[in-house]
Design goal:
This protein has 8 helices and 8 strands. The protein has an 8-stranded mixed β-sheet, sandwiched between helices. It is an alpha/beta fold. The chain is about 35% helix and about 15% strand.
């Protein structure tokens, strides 16, 4: 199959969860014999490669401002993808999915992966939030397939749009285990004496699940050592 990827910022990169998913997904799909093209969002100072681990990369120009960056990029990437003779155009995130209406009208197959309901977070307000909401509505109505990452999202699309979705949670790449060095040296913490939460403290990141775990697992709570991390 020939597949286009639209909606991430840049690969290779670790700017966010979407970029990690797209990088892992595209490179694995290439290994299975697919032809994959990723449409990167242009950024000053980032040297965009033409190819990465077998994935073809196309650098898409945009206007680097908060309320125009993703919109301009998604539109131009979609127009470019229409001429690529793809079997599937795969959109990542509901904002960029606003433009999937164009390939849909032209009879192109589209897939959307919903990485989160972004407009519900404090980060997005006004035009940005409205644009993302419209992207959600268009995806729910016109995408050939929708992938969600949580059962809550699956239930949400079923209740609000009566739309069946595919529940495929993100996985983890197992890394070699190493002994704690820096955290022991700096904070005096050893194995099983701490829990690391690495994320913005905003709705949708799942911090409440960690708090529930600590509240109801008394052994874990007793083992924790409280450390002042300087407000970070």
């Amino acid at each position: 199959m020939k597949i286009a990827m639209i909606g991430h910022k840049r690969i290779p990169g670790r700017e966010g969860g979407i970029e990690v998913v797209v990088e892992e997904l595209t490179t694995r799909m290439v290994e299975k014999g697919n032809e994959v093209v990723a449409y990167n969002r242009h950024k000053k100072g980032f040297k965009c490669p033409k190819e990465y681990k077998g994935v073809q990369i196309i650098d898409i120009p945009t206007i680097e401002r908060k309320n125009t960056d993703a919109v301009v990029y998604s539109f131009i990437a979609t127009i470019r993808a229409l001429f690529g003779k793809y079997d599937v155009i795969h959109y990542h995130a509901i904002g960029p999915s606003f433009f999937l209406i164009i390939p849909h009208i032209l009879g192109k197959k589209t897939v959307v992966t919903v990485h989160g309901l972004n407009y519900k977070t404090p980060k997005w307000k006004g035009f940005g939030a409205k644009f993302i909401q419209l992207g959600e509505q268009i995806a729910a109505k016109y995408a050939d397939e929708i992938i969600v990452l949580s059962k809550e999202q699956k239930e949400y699309f079923q209740k609000k749009y009566n739309r069946e979705t595919n529940y495929i949670p993100n996985g983890l790449v197992e890394q070699p285990r190493e002994k704690a060095v820096e955290i022991t040296k700096k904070y005096g913490l050893n194995k099983k004496e701490y829990i690391l939460y690495l994320s913005r403290v905003v709705p949708g990141k799942g911090l409440e699940y960690l708090m529930d775990c600590l509240l109801y697992t008394t052994d874990a709570a007793d083992d924790l050592t409280r450390v002042d991390l300087g407000g970070r």
